[in-house]
Amino acid sequence: MNSNRNLLAVTLARVCFVCVTLLSASNSFAQSASPLIQNVFGRSTLSLNGDWHYIVDPHDEGKSRRYYLNGKPFGTRDFVEYNFDTSPTLHVPGDWNFQRPELQLYEGTVWYQKSFSYRSQPNTRAFLYFGAANYRAQVWLNGQPLCEHEGGFTPFDCEATSLLQDGDNVVIVSVNDTRHADDIPALRPDWFNYGGLTRDVMIVEVPRQFIQQYSIRLERGSTQRISGWVRLSDALAPQTVTLRIPELKISSKAISTKAGLFSFTVEAANLQLWSPEKPKLYHLEISTSSDQISEAIGFRTIETRGTEILLNGRSIFLRGIDLHEEAPYRSGRAHGADDARTLLGWARDLGCNFVRLAHYPHDELLIREADRMGMLVWSEIPVYQGIDFKNRQTLDKARQLLTEMITRDQNHMAIILWSVSNETPKSPERNAFLHQLVVTARELDPTRLITTATNQVSTPAPHQKVFDDPIIADLDVFGVNEYIGWYEGVPADLDLTTWSTPYNKPMIVSEFGGDARQGLHGSVNQRWTEEYQEDIYKHQISALRRIPFLRGMSPWLLKDFRSPHRQLPGIQDGYNRKGLISESGERKKAFYVLQQYYRELAYQAGESAR
Ligand code: GCB
Hints:
By secondary structure, the chain is of the alpha/beta class. 18% of the residues lie in helices and 30% in strands.
């Protein structure tokens, strides 16, 4: 057993820093969320998905009216003028906007209530877990405040052991999705602000002292040494922790420290590496005398060398597409394994080995599907345009989201890139802010590549693009968003454009494209037609072929998505139309142009197109 103590100490210090930040930021609520329990899908759980009663609260008076007490208006002398039991219901998981027509454009507070029956088990702790609540959530259990959380795309859990009753219980959650200048994202993202309990809600049961978090991966630079750490929930007496990977005949024991930590390194001969072509997952078990958790886990390396990205030591070109978390075939936020399979299946049909998840962490079930399917992933936090970079609290929030994203997903090998932002204008404050995020990401996870998508470029002469954003100095790989032929010039300008950078690093063109209404046809010079979009793709592809430091691309984007910015009647009707697939699943002409290119690239790489 070797130790990884420094990394471990930094990681835990960071997690605690976030707890303190949250605690001091909350005034009305005493309890912030508990440290995140990883891999809730591997736990004994009671699903609270399903119908929840709700009350809309546009004036934010539910607290003064004490909705959290779940009052009863009849049969007592109490004055109560609400009644969850006879209020309408919303399905959870799901945004409120597309379940009730009157809530489509509502932004504000909605109160959710669910009754459920529970029976406690001896020596068992119970946590209420929320996959995501957009944007601020406050939780009461049986009339008592339980916890609160900020951030619409990352999970949180709250210890409920002492508040749960045998028999009937009531959980009430107020969710508020009002946008603020100092939030993340800030005021005007180019996507629909779906509000509500948008991912799974459950009670997670664990033993008194349990395995809270772990990080298991190949050691940097090695293809057969697995190392990592395990953190137990409490620092009780030292415990023996066992790590097993039966298929590799690995069984390794160690004693946890007083702080409930355990770190190790084991040799793994004959390891079959995870890759898009062969997404091999091993069954991993971690156990203590009181707890056990298992995980399907892959092992791979990811690094850069000059302008190359190396997966398992071999240079790879990322054939990608951008993806919003928009439901296929229906309106609303996507969630769950079925949506994930459809969206990733479309990406695979396109010939992708890579998806960029814009612009926030997506459902963990999609990441798990990517692990199984062999789809490489870029995962990002919503530090998106318009962020208040001078605000220290906004930086704390960004760090919190980054920590939650990495904590949740660090054992999913599909993810190769953590992105700390998208399209932020350079300034000393912005540079310092992003630098802090890069530092945090590296401390939390030294094994993945750190990136960001920038649109900051110098143009010393017409058609000359120089990628010299100073933030690139901090990154392993830089993403560039460019819209030549759409927001800038015409598609033929791409034939004249030259691309350079002072940095010796791999570049991904993380966005390009243009709007097309599916089914609208015309000449290549007619904006909004499929032909115009197709022409952009043709010129883009031939331009991108000429960039030697280009190591991947993810055009904007797989599917049309709702955005309040996009109001052109008859064309956009509230949708950003840069998708290669319409909201109802029809492919546009540009889909096939990209598919053909990706087939060619796959063939050159010696892979069969999938
Ligand atoms: C961008 C943004 C993306 C927008 C896209 C567009 O640069 O990163 O969020 O949706 O452009 O369609 O304008």
